[in-house]
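Side project, low priority. Logging it here so it doesn't get lost.
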Amino acid sequence: MTASASAKPTHTLVRLDAPFTDQKPGTSGLRKSSTQFEEPHYLESFIEASLRTLPGVQGGTLVLGGDGRYGNRRAIDVILRMGAAHGLSKVIVTTGGILSTPAASNLIRQRQAIGGIILSASHNPGGPDGDFGVKVNGANGGPTPASFTDAVYECTKTLEEYTIVEAAAIPLDAPGLHSIGAMQVEVIDGVDDFVALMQELFNFDQIRDLIRSDFPLAFDAMHAVTGPYATRLFEGLLGAPAGSVRNGVPLEDFGKGHPDPNLTYAHELAELLLEGDDYRFGAACDGDGDRNMILGQRCFVNPSDSLAVLTANATLAPAYASGLAGVARSMPTSAAVDVVAKELGIDCFETPTGWKFFGNLLDAGKITLCGEESFGTGSNHVREKDGLWAVLFWLQILAERRCSVAEIMAEHWERFGRHYYSRHDYEAVASEAAHGLYDRLEAMLPNLVGQPFAGRTISEADNFSYTDPVDGSVTTGQGLRILLDDGSRVVVRLSGTGTKGATIRIYLESYVPNSGDLNQDPQVALAEMISAINDLAEIQSRTGMDRPTVIT
């Protein structure tokens, strides 16, 4: 381990010509184009507001890292020097600045830090022409609540100056101890602590036996943050052959790919599993490592179903052998897990989209597992969704049950019935057109009850709101719901995670009991509902798009 010290740094007060007025964080921090973050003082403004707002900065410890995208190292240098100016006692940063979001959550909790700054735009493309992002996590390791992000936003709108010190860049290529004035900078291997946590949760000997028993697997890291983690886990500790981890070197532009683990952007992996017979298991994770896609031989696992399967089989993993306290899902996620929870006799909570809503339930001990339809799954081991954790959980189930992914899904549906489910994304829609479509549909909701829809009748139509059972806070305006008399539903939302235009997300769900047809193509099973919502919302004419950008 190397060590270095710096002389007393020079503090600089930088005055802004005018405050920035567009730094309102979304559900996962501030995401903008890389170009915008390179605008003079733009990054510094948001960091200044965050450090002024985060409790315990003076004398506190902060965790810092990111997904390796373009701008990662520059941002780390800026944040270290601003942290020193604000009186942080220590910053824990990782080699190369590479730190997955779930690993950051774990480090915050293990090191009792005041929080962490995660540099990522998650599944958005990277590079000079891509996107960059900054997210602040709190002392529990999870995303900060709306009260914090609102306060940061208000601060940025009136900010007149920021403070930074002039100091040499801290070397990040190897573990070491350094300092910037009185602030210590500890550079650690970002993989070690996360891997140790996974070994506490799962039976690695059992998974290793599975992988070595003619069980070829393919993991696609998408040239993003999970490459080093997956290589250590799958090829190093679990005995998968070299090359099992694909695209395992993090690149600033993700190899010019789109690090979103779905059937569209991880199509090469999908083709290997769904069209060939060389692999028994496949998985992928996104830019910052918190999302996952699970594939079996000629079998795609819908994320909503994945949460339900993990819940139904939770006791097969050592960490959950004594059972679950409860489960939770985001509102747009299918009710597949609800059916499992009912049979298990545990609570199931329906929350708004955004992992911070799960955090309260986890901290209060009300739930053990949670998940969302956008390929995110997690548990009480951290306060973020965790892609590699989900992959290991599936391998644990397969190691215990010794059957195929397709067989697990078939047996699950035969026991609980099947929730046919799909999400249609219309990306980069002109903001005016997207909001026009959404506002028109919302205005129609009160008059829709009792109207026919896709051969059914609309029983309820609303804009989802949520009262937190822990702190009593109320969150409104979370998505337009059209609920049908047979339990089917359509949800329409505008996404807050894009940087170009707006994304309209259409969620479709139809439940078939175990006595019904469980083997349909979801797009066929949902065809009537797809046509009905397209007509009702005038999607094609208002967006100018004749088909979704992404179907999952």
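Brief comment: The first strand starts at residue 2 and ends at 3.
Revisit when time allows.
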